[in-house]
Amino acid sequence: MELSQKLYKYCPKEWKKASKGTDQFGPPMIIHFRVQYYVENGRLISDRTARYYYYCHLREQVLQSQSTAREEAYFLLAACALQADLGNFKRNKHHGKYFEPEAYFPPWVIKKRGKDYILKHIPNIHCDQFAVNVSEAHLMYIKEASRLEDVAVHYYRLYKVSGHTRKDYGGEKDMGGHTVYLTKDANTQHRNCAHSDVTGQG
Predict the structure, then answer these.
(1) How confident is the model at residue 195 (pLDDT cuts 50, 70, 90)?
(2) Which has the higher per-residue pLDDT, 10 or 185?
(3) Which of 53, 159, 169, 178 has its CA 20 to 30 A from that of 124?
(4) What are the residue boundaries of the FERM domain, all occurrences included (predicted)?
């Protein structure tokens, strides 16, 4: 979607109809906006609203993350998110199941450690974030989330055309360049290339 184009250019032809001199619109069209460029330093996003939505996007990405070698990072991220959501940890208020682990951890962490383990250990890490305001908690989350290898990336479906045969491959695009994963006969190859060396076709 080109930002310079008017929104109706992307709507179905039947979406907008004229009737009796007034515009009558068809069924609602839902547009999901995604991050175009990833940054590690959230301060580069000067608009607070845009930064908040960027933070929310990363939270969704973290819940799908599979960086098993960085398990401790998910606990710090959860603590930052809890600080942003609930403020300073208060023992007389934040005890027991004061949050839903599914909203802060990927399923594999919950399955591996269990909800009881998470609810037991997170309070201390949440407490360590004392006096961190919402804006600072968002910035910390953005920074730490960007360090996970599979969070600040875009995934694409790539095709290798050989003659009349089209083969499917998986690919991802991160902050510094492209890492393309080529899968064939159970063998995975890694190819690194710069953004300028990759062309795509919608």
Answers:
(1) very low
(2) 10
(3) 53
(4) 1-202
